[in-house]
Structure formats: C-alpha cells, structure tokens
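User: Quick sanity check before I run a bigger batch. Here is a single chain. Can you write out its predicted 3D structure?
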Amino acid sequence: MLENIKQNFEQVLESDKDSRDLRSLSISLDTFYALSSALEVGIFQGLMQPKSSLELAETLGLHAGITEKLCKALTSRGYLSREGGNYALSDLAMTFLTESSPFYQGSLIKLMQRTRAQRWSNLARALKEGPIVASSGHQVFDEFFALAMAEGAIGGSLQRTIKSLKKMPEFYKARKCLDLGGSHGLYSLAFARLNPELEVVIFDLPKVIEGAAKKVVSDSENIVTMVGDFNRDNLGKDYDFVFASDVLYRNEESLRPLLARIRESLKHDGLLISKHFHIDDLMSDSSAVLFDLMFSLSGTGGVVYSSADFCRLLGSAGFTIVQVDDISSPSSPSKIIMAKKVGD
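Assistant: Done. Predicted structure follows.
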C-alpha cells in the first residue's frame, strides 16, 4: 500500500479528497462506547448534582484520571457541561440518560451494545460461513428486551404512531382491538386513553406479559392480557382492528399463515394496522437496510420488505390497502399501512 501511495504521490498531494466522512464513523462508535460505559458505571446518575471529576470518581469508586478524560469526552459531545471545576448534566443527558426521566433510554443503549457484540461482530464470519445460529435456549424476547423496546417507542415512534391514528375515524369507532406482540403495553395504554370505550387485548409471550406488560397495564380496566405464541396459538376473535408493531419481519413462508390468522380474528371490514420499517429507498431508508442485514446474521428468517411488496402480500392474504402513512424519522424509517379485511 505504501508503494502505491509513493507511486501516485503527486496525485495525492494535488488532490482535495478528504476521508472525513469515513473517520466520522469511528467518532460515532467511540462516542457510543463512551456513552454506554458511562451509563454502566453510573456517571449520569452520579452527576444529578454537579461535581468535579475527582468527587465523581470517589463517589462511584472509579479511576480518577480516566474519569476526568471521560467527562471531557462527554462534554465535547454535548452530554455534559463544565463550569469551573465541576461537571453537570446537559439537557440532553437529563432528558434521556437519567433514570428518573420518563424519556430514559439507558436500557435501549444497553440492548444496542449487546446486539452489536452478539451479532455485528459476527458479520465477517457470517459472510464466509452463512448465518450464525444462536445457541439453544437463547431468549431474545424477555422483560429486558420489552423495556428496551418501550424506551425506543417513547423516543418518538409511539408519538408519531398515535398522531397518525388520531386522524382515523375508524379508531374512535372501534370497540375491541388486539395489540399483537404488544410487549411493553405502551401502545395499548395510549389506545385506551384515546378511546375509553375500546377494549384492548395485549397478546405476547408469558415472560413478557408477566414482566413488562402487566407493570404498565395492571391498573387499566379496559386492557386485558393474553398469553401465547402468536405463531400457533389462538388470537381471539371479533376485533375491530389488529395493531402489529415491528413483529411481522418474517419471510413469506411464515408470514402468510400468520396474516391468515390475523384476518380470521378480525370482524367483517376489520383493519390490520401495521407499523414497520420498510425499504423504499436505499439512501433515505439506510437504517432499515442495516436492520435487514442484521436479521440475516442470525438465520432467523427476518425480512424487511418494501412498502410495495408488503402491500402485495397483504392483498394476496385477503386485505385491501386503505392508507399508507409515512411516520419515518432519519433513524426510524417506519410506515403505518392500514389494510381492511375483504372477501367475507
């Protein structure tokens, strides 16, 4: 490589090319590890009241020199501020990184760290060997996962989803709905708040229902829980709509029977309301493209569809598309696809 540089040195010297975009990837990764490590050792909780880095290190039992450098790094990225010799939380950190905030994202960041360690570190191996199948007994959908998903939802997707549903007359006319794979129950809670006459059924795995979901909905009279595996167990019936958020990422072979069972659970003219990532443009939907790649690493059969392909599948499963609502953000290229049951 050095020989190549030497041979083309005049071209190199006269060029205005700059690899700063590539180097920014490293800065983003460095920031992520600094942030996740700060959460792990309690930096943000420790700075609920401003402190010097030495006081912070003594309080948390940390190495004083590295703590000072970490505080400087977090300040440079906008998570802390420094006044005199003390460090304090920025508004960004106070909102998203302190456990007392309703917008806390700490569990989601821990999940991101775990995902990168377990999946992305295996990408080169998977390219050579194929998908890396998880060990027997490995459980993804547990209470911690549900908590992380709840934090992800309150970061914007929940609010954008509810804003979309508020515009639907059918939502306010509904009297019974199913939150399929409802996990943390926050969507169900929002549905019940917006439509007090709506009976909401949350369907999810036993560990999820007994953990996260019941903590959220236990005092809500018009929200009930149903335990099971929606791939094989009874979903109930006579729903005005079924809400499915980020649970239909699967290949056609497994998606078609599930769509048939969703359709069977709906009333005549009932709605399937789907909220998922879709890949409609490789550049603007890059988060979904990377999400789709991540699925392929573990061999789970997960698929992120384009909006058109997903609508085509819904059409072949006995639905007609009513509306497609783009609720995407740069990091969450989601669309809400509303489809009506037809053919009864």
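The beta strands are 80-83, 86-89, 176-180, 199-204, 223-227, 239-245, 266-277, 319-326, 334-341.

User: Great, the batch can go ahead then.
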